[in-house]
């Protein structure tokens, strides 16, 4: 790779015909940007859009179940709603929101100027967006998926000629999820390379912020989990369209094979969703408690242990399938074992808060709400390691309550807290605090009113995945309460979105380092950060380095703020910008995909590019060709992919 100093000294610039002028500001810049911060914002906007769509589907489900023998949805419509609700919230809301924060924050937290592969980063976003639109286009092109968000066979794998699931919904679902998996994998690879290779000098692994650590573990889980579900989805498509018999029991196939493949992906997926939330809370609690994180090393290694042990618990989703006593005993034990590092984290968070000087603002309230709600979800999860209890609960609303306490009570509470916490960094303004606290209390009340009654409904025997229940079963009042709670959550989400839209332009202007934070992202020269992040790459000398630049101890061990204020002062031992960029920033950050000088500082940043977007157009085109067996359309998609790929590869390194 050409060093930055060599690139800047070239006497003559020659424009390649592949390169077209691209704007770095304005509306059009969003289509060509490779700036990790802009891409993070686009991920967040897309995920919030799908949060609204998935929420509307949830409201329709709850309206159908608000009273016995509901008639809001037909059986087929109900199956479509709960299939698309689960698919949307997991693959199009939960994962992209985590990736959004990872994209924006990881380079800032480790003292880097960008991610390792900026164009690949943009490609990953466009794949996720088009993958989601591809799945939802099924509503207008032959029927939406209706076989459950888990896609169990033979519901989804029976050949279309047999009419098990009329329409092409399962085909849209399988192809769309493969696309979404591709986008998630590219982001994961990017995060891994960025964290392992682009940390600032002195930023050892055990000095990294916990959020970056948890995103690193999540990235490794994603890289290994996505190929498994991709194989399963490909086999489903073959069974439906090529008359293979992977899951056809009458021809020697095994429907349980799909469940093993899906849950071998599906349970690590739970930790792909929850570990970023754990990282967010581990950043908010110390800052708002004015204390360092209690047991930093233990929190980090507990996260690694969760990622490792998460591969050994998938079959507790299958205790009712008759696996046999040996397998059931082994997975029961592993399910109990994974509760240990999870419990350790909870006690570390409580130790951080204990004795602290607490600021009960909106980010702190959501972080504390995360700890409480996730603990409830964890306790109900431990019950599923007890085989007789799990066998009774597995197809009831008790399980629905459990995984919503884990994923909504965990990830969503943490993400909402993170949005309030990092909003000043992104837009230079605070979100409205009064509206934020109102949002928190509405979410807390609505969430518990919706999902806590489901524990009781499950224990009383209400089955999940059914669109009606008869009167006189004792389910009526609790279902009505759950429906009321779901609309309270909807009001809270509406307030959150209003707060975001209004505050980004009219919110109270945030001073530098508004929370008196501990990590490097708050040390940038301005909010929002400049395109190049840091004028000088920081020299890291301690864990929570920003905190140590601001404070010291006097002779009696009391905390004393340094006269310089720390955050506005130049980084201690900063490395010269061009020297560090030229030597250490690999990949296509500088200047492999065509650089430009940022902000007049002589800092060489990657140029915007059309080709990630162009290449992405080929994927849904190919997908439609596969779904409709239109090989001309499929061939066109392949040609677009090839053109985009080669244009991307031949794009000049500099202009």
Notable characteristics:
single chain, 655 residues, mainly alpha, Cytochrome C Oxidase, Chain A, two-stranded antiparallel sheet, disordered N terminus
What does this 3D model show about the protein?
This protein has 655 residues and is an all-alpha fold. The protein has a two-stranded antiparallel ribbon. The chain has a two-stranded antiparallel sheet with strand order 3-4. It has helices at 4-8, 29-32, 36-65, 75-110, 118-136, 169-197, 210-241, 255-289, 296-309, 325-353, 362-383, 387-393, 397-427, 433-459, 476-506, 545-550, 577-584, 611-627, 631-650, and strands at residues 551-553, 559-561, 595-598, 603-606. Mean pLDDT is 88; it is low at 1-21, 161-165 and 566-594.
**What is the total tally of β strands?**
4
**How much of the sequence is in beta strands?**
under 5%
Please state the structural category. mainly alpha
The CATH architecture assignment turns out to be Up-down Bundle
Task: State the order of secondary-structure elements, H for helix, E for strand.
Answer: HHHHHHHHHHHHHHHHEEHEEHH
Helical run tally: 19
Q: Identify the CATH homologous superfamily.
A: Cytochrome c oxidase-like, subunit I domain
Number of domains: 1
């Amino acid at each position: 790779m050409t060093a930055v100093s060599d690139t800047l000294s070239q006497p003559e610039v020659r424009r390649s015909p592949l390169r077209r002028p691209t704007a770095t500001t304005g509306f059009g810049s969003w289509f060509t940007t490779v700036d990790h911060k802009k891409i993070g914002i686009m991920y967040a906007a897309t995920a919030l859009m799908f949060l609204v769509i998935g929420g509307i589907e949830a409201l329709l489900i709850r309206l159908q179940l608000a009273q016995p023998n509901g008639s809001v949805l037909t059986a087929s419509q109900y199956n479509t709603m709960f299939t698309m609700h689960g698919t949307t919230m997991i693959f199009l809301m939960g994962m992209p929101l985590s990736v959004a924060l990872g994209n924006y924050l990881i380079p800032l937290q480790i003292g880097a100027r960008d991610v390792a592969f900026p164009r690949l980063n943009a490609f990953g976003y466009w794949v996720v967006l088009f993958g989601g639109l591809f799945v939802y286009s099924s509503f207008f092109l032959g029927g939406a998926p209706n076989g459950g968000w888990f896609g169990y066979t033979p519901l989804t794998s029976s050949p279309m000629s047999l009419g098990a699931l009329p329409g092409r919904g399962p085909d849209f679902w399988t192809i769309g999820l493969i696309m979404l998996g591709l986008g998630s994998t590219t982001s994961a690879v990017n995060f891994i390379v960025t964290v392992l290779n682009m940390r600032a000098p002195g930023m050892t692994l055990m000095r990294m912020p916990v959020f970056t650590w948890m995103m690193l573990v999540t990235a490794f889980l994603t890289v290994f989990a996505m190929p498994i579900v991709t194989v399963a989805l490909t086999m489903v498509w073959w069974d439906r369209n090529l008359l293979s018999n992977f899951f056809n029991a009458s021809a020697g196939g095994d429907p349980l094979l799909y469940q093993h493949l899906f849950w071998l992906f599906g349970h690590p997926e739970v930790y792909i969703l929850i570990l970023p939330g754990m990282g967010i809370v581990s950043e908010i609690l110390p800052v708002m408690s004015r204390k360092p994180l209690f047991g930093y090393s233990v929190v980090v290694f507990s996260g690694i242990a969760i990622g490792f042990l998460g591969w050994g618990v998938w079959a507790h989703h299958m205790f009712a399938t008759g696996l046999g006593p040996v397998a059931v005993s082994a997975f029961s034990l592993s399910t109990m074992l994974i509760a240990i590092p999870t419990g350790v984290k909870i006690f570390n968070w409580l130790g951080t808060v204990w004795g602290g000087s607490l600021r009960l603002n909106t980010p702190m309230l959501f972080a504390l709400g995360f700890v409480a709600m996730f603990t409830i979800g964890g306790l109900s999860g431990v019950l599923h390691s007890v085989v007789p209890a799990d066998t009774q609960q597995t197809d009831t609303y008790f399980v629905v309550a459990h995984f919503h306490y884990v994923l909504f009570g965990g990830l969503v509470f943490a993400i909402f807290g993170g949005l309030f916490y990092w909003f000043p960094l992104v837009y230079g303004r605070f979100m409205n605090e009064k509206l934020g606290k109102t949002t928190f209390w509405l979410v807390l009340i609505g969430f518990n009113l919706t999902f806590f009654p489901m524990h009781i409904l499950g224990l009383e025997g209400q089955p999940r995945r059914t669109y009606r229940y008869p009167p006189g079963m004792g389910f009526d009042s609790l279902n009505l309460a759950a429906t009321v709670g779901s609309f309270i959550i909807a009001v809270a989400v509406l307030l959150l979105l209003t707060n975001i839209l209004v505050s980004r332009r009219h919110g109270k202007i945030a001073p530098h380092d508004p929370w008196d934070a501990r990590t490097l992202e708050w040390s940038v020269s301005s909010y929002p950060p400049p395109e190049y992040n840091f004028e000088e790459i920081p020299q890291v000398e301690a864990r929570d380095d920003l905190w140590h630049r601001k404070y010291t101890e006097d002779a009696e061990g009391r905390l004393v703020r340094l006269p310089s204020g720390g955050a506005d002062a130049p980084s201690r031992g900063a490395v010269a910008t061009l020297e560090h960029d030229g030597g250490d920033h690999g990949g296509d950050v500088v200047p492999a995909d065509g650089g430009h000088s940022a902000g007049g500082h002589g800092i060489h940043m990657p140029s915007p590019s059309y080709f990630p977007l162009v290449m992405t157009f080929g994927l849904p085109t190919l997908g439609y060709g596969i779904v409709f067996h239109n090989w001309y359309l499929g061939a066109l998609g392949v040609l677009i992919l090839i053109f985009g790929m080669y244009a991307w590869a031949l794009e000049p390194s500099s202009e």
